Amino acid sequence: MSDNSYDTGRLNLPFVGISTFGKRPYVADWSSINADIAILGAPYDFGTQFRAGARFGPRAIREASTLFSFGHAGAYDHEDDCIYLASDVRIVDLGDADIVHTDTLKSHANIKRGVQAILNSGALPVVLGGDHSINIPCIDAFEGHGDIHILQIDAHLDFVDERHGVRFGHGNPMRRAAEKSYVTGLTQVGIRNVSSTAREGYESARSFGSDILSVRQMRALGPQGVIDRIPKGAKVYVTIDIDGFCPSIAPGTGTPSHGGFLYYEVLEMLQAVAKRHSVVGIDLVEVAPDYDHSGSTAILAAQVLLNFLGFIFQARKA
Questions:
Q1: How many CA atoms lie within 13 A of 94 on its CB side?
Q2: Which of 20, 116, 132, 246 pairs as cysteine with 93 (C-beta 3.0–4.6 A)?
Q3: Which three-class secondary structure state does DSSP give residue 201?
Q4: At what angle are helices 57-65 and 296-317 packed, to 10 degrees?
Q5: Of 2, 26, 23, 5, nearest to 71 (Cα)?
Q6: Domain total of the chain
Q7: Is the pTM of this model over 0.70?
Q8: Residue 147's pLDDT is what?
Q9: Mean pLDDT of all residues in the chain?
C-alpha cells in the first residue's frame, strides 16, 4: 500500500523547478517574513586573501540542497527514529543580499539588513556565504537581541585585528565579534596548521576569553565534550567555515587545510549543541564551487545545514 503523503500534488523531483534552498518558497518582501527559518544568501567574496570564488557559494549550496527535497512529509532518520523538518517547520528563502562590487561596507550593510529583517520576524537566520567576512554584518545584526556565544567550526582563527588597514576581511570576523558587548564568549574548534592569525592573535583571542581547540584536541574530548565546554544556558550562534572539514571531502574552498574534520565529527557537535543550547543563528561560509567540479563540497554544505536545522527544531519540540 502506498503512503498517500508521497502521492499528493506534484512529484517535483530535485532537478525540476527553481533552485531555492531545499525547494522551499521564495519570499522577495523582507518585511513580510512568516516562517520558522529564513535563508539568506550573502554572495560576497571580496574579503579573501588568496583564492576567490565564494561569491558563487550560495547558488551552489541552493542547487545542491534540492538533492534533499524529496517528499512532502519531512526526512525520516532511522538511527534517531525521528522525522526531521516535517511540514510544520516553515522554511523560506529570501534570495540574496545585494552586493555592491568592491564596496565592503555597502555590501555588509545589505547583509546586516537582511539578518535584521529575519530576527525582527522571529525566524531563525541561516546565511549562506560568501567568504567569512560576511559573519561580521551577521553578528552586527544581533545588537539588541540579547547575549550570544559563538561556536566557530573552522581551520583558521580569523582573529586578526587589522592588517594594512583591513579590518573587515575574512581574517577579521572573530576579532570583530569578540569586541561586541553582547558576545559573551567564543568556542573556536578545528583550528590547525599555519593560520592567517599570528601568535599575538591567539594571545589576544584568549585574553577575550576564547576557547581554542584543534582537530586533535576535539577528537580527544569527543563532540559532546567540546559542547560541554560552552557555558550552560548560553544562546549560541554557529558559524561554519567549510574549510573546517578536511579538503579530502570538501576541496571546494579558497583556503583548504589538510587534517580537518570528517562529516560525523561536525554533525555530532551540531547535534549536541542543538540539544544543549538555544541556537539563535547560523552562517556557513567559504564554499567556492569552482574548485570542486564534482559538486561534493556544496552537497556537504547543504546536507550539514539541513541536518542541523532538523536537530534544532526537533530539540525545540522536545
A1: 32
A2: 20
A3: helix
A4: 70
A5: 5
A6: 1
A7: yes
A8: 98
A9: 94
* 57 grid coordinates: 557559494
Task: Retrieve residue 253's grid coordinates.
Answer: 574552498
Q: Taking the chain, what is the end-to-end CA distance rounded to the nearest angstrom?
A: 31
Looking at the DSSP assignment, which residues form a beta bridge with residue 93?
A: 26, 39
pLDDT tens digits for range 3-27:
554 556 778 888 999 999 999 999 9
Q: Cβ neighbours of residue 45 under 8 Å, at least 6 residues apart? A: 52, 53, 54, 55, 57, 129, 130, 131, 254, 288
Helix crossing, 263-276 with 296-317: angle to 10°?
20
141 Cβ partners below 8 Å, 6+ apart?
112, 115, 116, 119, 125
130 prior amide bond cis, ω within 30: yes
Residue type, 102: T
Residue given cell 544562546 in the structure block = 235
Strands 124-129 and 148-153, bridge-based pairing: unpaired
pLDDT tens-digit map of 70-101: 666 788 899 999 999 998 999 999 999 999 99
User: What is d(CA 284, CA 290) in angstroms, rounded to the nearest whole number?
Assistant: 17
Residue 238 near residue 277, CB atoms below 8 Å: no
Read off the pLDDT of residues 194-220 as tens digits, 9 standing for 90 and up: 776 788 889 999 999 999 999 999 999
Looking at 158-258, list the stretches that DSSP marks H as alpha helix, in order from N- to C-terminal side: 173-178, 199-207, 215-221, 223-227
pLDDT confidence band for 2 (50 / 70 / 90): very low
pLDDT at 7: 56
Task: Show the domain range for 52.
Answer: 4-317
CATH code at position 33: 3.40.800.10
Q: Distances from the Cα of 8 to the Cαs of 14, 71, 76, 186, in angstroms?
A: 16, 10, 18, 46
- All 3 cell numbers of residue 62? 541552493
